[in-house]
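Structure, all two chains, one model.
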Amino acid sequence: MKRIGILLFIFLPFIAVSQLLEGAIYGNEKNEKQPLPGVNIYWQGTNRGVASVDDGSFKIKKRSSDHILMISFVGYQTQELHIHDLNFLEIMLEPNLELGEVKVVHKNRGTYLSAIDPIQTERINGAELHKAACCNLAESFETNPSVDVSYSDAVTGAKQIRLLGLEGTYSLLQIENMPNLRGLATNFGLTYVPGPWMESIQVSKGAASVLNGYESIAGQINAEYKKPDAEEKLFLNTFVGASGRLEFNGNGNIRVYKDKLTTGIFVHASDQSRRNDENGNGFLDEPLSRQVQVFNRWKYNNHKGYMAQAGFSVLTEDRLGGQASFRKGMQPLISNPYGISIENDRMEGFFKTGYVWPNQRTALAWLSNFSRHETSSFYGLNRYDASETRFYGSAVLTRDLDLAGRHMLNTGFSFIYDKFDENLYQQKMNRKEQVPGIFAEYTLKPGPDFTFLAGIRTDFHNLFGTFVTPRMHLRYNMGEHVTIRASAGKGYRTANIISENNYLLANARPLQWSHDVFQEKAWNYGFALVQYYTLWGRELQLNTEYFRTDFQTQLVVDRETSTSNIILAPLDGQSYSNSLQFDLRYEPIERLDVLLAYRLNDVKQTIGGELLEKPLTSRYKGLITFNYTTNLKKWMFDYTIQFNGGGRIPRYPVEGLERISISGDNFEFSPYTVMNAQITKYFRYWNIYLGAENFTDFKQKNPVAGTDDPFGPDFDATNVWGPIMGRRIYLGLRFNLNYQ
Amino acid sequence: MILMLGGLTSEISAQKKGRAVVCFQSDMDCTNCEETLYEHLRFEKGVKDLKVDHASNTIRIEFVEKRNDEKSLAKAIGDKGFKADKITSEKYKELLGQVKEHGHEHDHEIHRERN
């Protein structure tokens, strides 16, 4: 009755003078303001409400009778606000210290560019992760215009990513906002993150916030795993590839004590035990492999400002590649076939906690993780064994300096411990990095249209001394349709000379290096222009961005000046990358999302005294993706075309040239096109997907040189620029059960 | 809001043969409930089109007459713990219209998110 009474009251035909109230809603995610879409905003006692959009903003009509604005969102405390005037509202939802669970709306765009975030960031969510087979993090970027994924070599199956045309090591990889997948995990780390475990991925380009460390030269990639207090109760996934790949993933959430204490259990197992040699060169196109991984995480949230999370995972993986006749247990001897064996054992743990003061102006967070990684491997006759122990800890204090939140300060300290023991060519290398650091970051946000962020950190490195990292970001909304961003910053990283380049051991020439450990330094500058327009009732998004990276010191891999060695040496001269990207997103007909993207890479490096194009890097990349869903999203169709530009192949000169004959393209590879497609059918509790990767069956010819004599001087499996495997058809099933 | 707009336009367009439309008034309170119901109802037998809106607390279902009926659909809503009071199409339009009127200027923005 009461409800009807209210309705009658509202429907009374009185002439109300209404004004427009605008604002934006954020979630306090690890002390960063993250725009929250889908939040309910309504006037108390009425049914007049709106929902916030992608960038967290909303507009609601205010009548003279409206006083109390209600803001509610699942997982966050409902706020009631007394509204006296029409000033722009900026609302921070608490108490969750991080983005708990933002439910995916009916059909959402898989990837979007935030209009609010001061750092140019692409957010990839669950919907996007359904668009491809997406077996692991490396494969999640097939439909992404910014990240390139390629094989490092033709025998180990290692995949590397490139951002701004630069190797993945120049991007800071994070899991749950903590640095991860580095050191010994550099080469295979992307396959250690199972796709179905992930909730979302954020890719940001250029300098990142100093809160995350001094790394991130080209950008930052963060993967978030599914949260134990999410709606999902049970998720199962199986995947079969026609080339013999089998995979199983599962995760389940248990609410141990109401919604306060929750736990999530994750399992992953994958297996490739069929030998594939499509090109008939006697070498396996991909190594035989097996991986098992288990992860358990816990979350405690008292919903009064305190939260803690912890988790632990164990992984074991082995790979066996090389000549198809090589068998497990064979010794690395010249009398045996050429073989590659890599065994990895890894365990990881993390702990993070945070508290938000009741006045909601101050928050304290602690983030830490550790890992222990052991590798035992051989590439032909080259043995490489290593172990690494790593710890990372960081404490951040966030404080709003004024009530309106126009000035905010983040300060804190961090500590990195990294111990390596490596053994290559019977040569032992041990080292220990210990890096305490302090940082501060100031955010100025005078209004919704402008954000300025300046950060600085100082780190005290036991090997490289004290160094300072300045970073700066700026975002400005020029009117309704245009957002510009600019960033500049310095980045540093420790080049782990062998562990990051061990795939180069699949080569006849021994590695030669002058430093066991080396610090790389670079400046990055970026500018981005994002435009939003409404075209025939639907939003058109245009993005233009340019990033420049200038290396001051760098580790250069020189495969072309010596016939007897691959030389890993410090840069002597210039090294830079220019990356210019355009992309367009639009929905030309209902439920069909189209992305067109084009990027130019100009990456040059001084190699052997000469400024040369960075080898094995495409000069451009074009991408077109189509995603269509039927009404009520019972079917989904995806189609992706990647246009990869040509590039340079590094070859050692003089007599080597005559001996190697690789059909035609000796110093240059030609542009090539790769297409992927997938169909998904959804049912209430499960869905089934069928797809084909590289369905035009394009392959790099002769990815392995010198196959007739793999222990001879011409053997080289590291000049890889294109796909090694042809068409791959796969079929997968997903099952999920939610709470409620 | 686009859900509502869409609802209105498909209301105008002629229904396909063998299809029936039923509208309900419910008691959802948040977008979360809206989603739960949407996810549940879209896989009910014979459902061909569906609008669930928490702002006006309305549900409109277009379904194949031979494969389902109003009673079962009302039960499906009830199973998820929500009210399902059948209303006429006119009442449905009226309820939507009220909310639409108040939220008119947001239409394209909501569309961005919910298309």
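Residues 1-14, 103-115 of chain B have pLDDT under 50 and may be disordered.
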